[in-house]
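User: For my dataset I need records formatted as: sequence, then C-alpha cells, nothing else. Please produce one.
Assistant:
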Amino acid sequence: MRRLWLLFAQTVTVALALYVVVHAMRPDWLDRPAPRLVGGTAASPAAVLQAPPQPVAGSYREAAGRAMPAVVNILTSKALRQNHPLLRDPFFRKFFGDRLPREEQLSSLGSGVIVSPDGYILTNNHVVEAADEIEVVLADGRKAPAKVVGTDPETDLAVIRIAAKNLPVIVLGRADQARVGDVVLAIGNPFGVGQTVTMGIISAVGRNNLHINQFENFIQTDAAINFGNSGGALVDTSGNLIGINAAIYSQTGGSVGIGFAIPVTTAKSVMEAIIKSGQVVRGWIGIETQDITPELADSFGLSRESGAIIAGVVRDGPADRAGIKPGDILLAVQGKAVANTSEMLVLIAQLPPGQKAKMTVIRKDRQSTLDVMVGKRPRAVE
C-alpha cells in the first residue's frame, strides 16, 4: 500500500513539474482552444475539424486598415483637340473618315491621399497636370469631381479638393524619424486593378541628384510601386503617412524594387503653402553652382571639399548686385553651412523674398560675408 502511495506521489510531482515548464516556456499550448467539430451537410456529409480564430503573428493588417480608407484613385481626362496629332493619324482616320470628332477623352489613373476632412488631397503633379477633368474614387466606392487647388512642379506635388462628407483622413507620420530597414507599406492603384497594398523596407533616405525633380530628398523603398501608384501613400507599421509615392527606377516600366517617395515633411509644407496662396513661394538669388569634388579642389588648389563653387551669376540678379562673382565658393547661407549644391538650393529656397540674407563666401583664400536681397524664384515651366 505504501508503495502505491509513493508511486502516486511521484506521478503527481512529475505532472506538476511538466505543467510548470510548459506554462513558462509555451503558454499558448495551454490556452489554445479546442478545434470545433463542424457537422456534415447535404453537400458535404463528412464532419470536419475547424480551427478557431488565431491572431496572425507579423501581420500588418491593422496598419493597412487604418491607411487604406484615406487612399483614393484619381481619374483624369484630357480633351483631344482638332489639331491633336492623333486626329491626323491615317489609322485613326480610317475609322472616322471625314467625320473626325472635335474631341475625344483619354483617361489615366493615379492615386492620392486624403489629408484633411475639408477634402484636401495630396497627389503628384504629373498625375493631374494638364487635366481638363478630375474624378476621385474613394475606397468605399463613392465618386466625386475634384478641382486643382495648386501645383508645385519642382517637387512634383499637387493639392486637389473634393466636396464630400464623412471623409476618412490619414494620420501624418514623422518622416524625419524614418531609418533604413524600417518596414513600410505602399498603397495605391497599380495598373488600375484596384486598391493594392505592397510591403517592403526603407532602402535609403535623403536620396537626391536623381534628376527627377528640382528639389529632391526622396525616401527609397523596395515596396513594389508601379504605374498608377503615383500619388499614393507610403505608410509605416502604424498606418501613418511618411511619404507620397512618386517615381520608380525601371528599365521595363515595372517595379524592380527601387521606388521613391516624397517625405511627408516636404509634402506638408508644400500643401500648406498651396492652400494659403495657391503656389509655393521660394527664395532665389540668381546663381548657378557646382559641387566641389576632389578633382576640382586639386585643380583650383582648394583646401576644402565642401561648399559650392559659383559657376555663373545672373546679370543684374540679387547675387550680382550684392557682389558675388563666378569662382566664389559659397560656404554658408544665413549662418547655415553649405555642404553641396543640393543643400544650398534648399537653404536659399527657404529664404523669404524681399529680405536680406547673409552669404559667406571665399574668394582667393579670403573669406567675406555679403548681404544679398533675396528675390522670388521664377516658377518652373510645367
